[in-house]
Design brief:
Elements lengths: L11 H9 L2 H20 L5 H14 L4 H9 L2
Length: 76
């Protein structure tokens, strides 16, 4: 399989975790991200709103509050 590079913006903690991970862990993260992106792209039957709701639910389960989101958006 041939590969291509893409750039995506992530929060600083995620970028730091990726850049400080071992080469093996970075390869694992890249593989998981590749599979997840492929899944999202190849399943257009799911409405975008449904995907966004799922992401929001997961973020809330991980502790993201409206106040933290507002802080992230405004760079506070």
């Amino acid at each position: 399989m041939t590969t291509s590079s893409i750039s995506i913006e992530v929060d600083a903690d995620t970028a730091r975790a990726f850049s400080t991970a071992s080469e093996e862990d970075r390869r694992k993260m890249q593989l998981l991200l590749n599979l997840r992106l492929r899944e999202l792209v190849n399943s257009p039957s799911r409405p975008l709103k449904e995907i966004m709701d799922e992401i929001g639910t997961e973020a809330q389960a991980r502790g993201l509050t409206p106040e933290i989101l507002e802080s992230i958006i405004h760079g506070d």
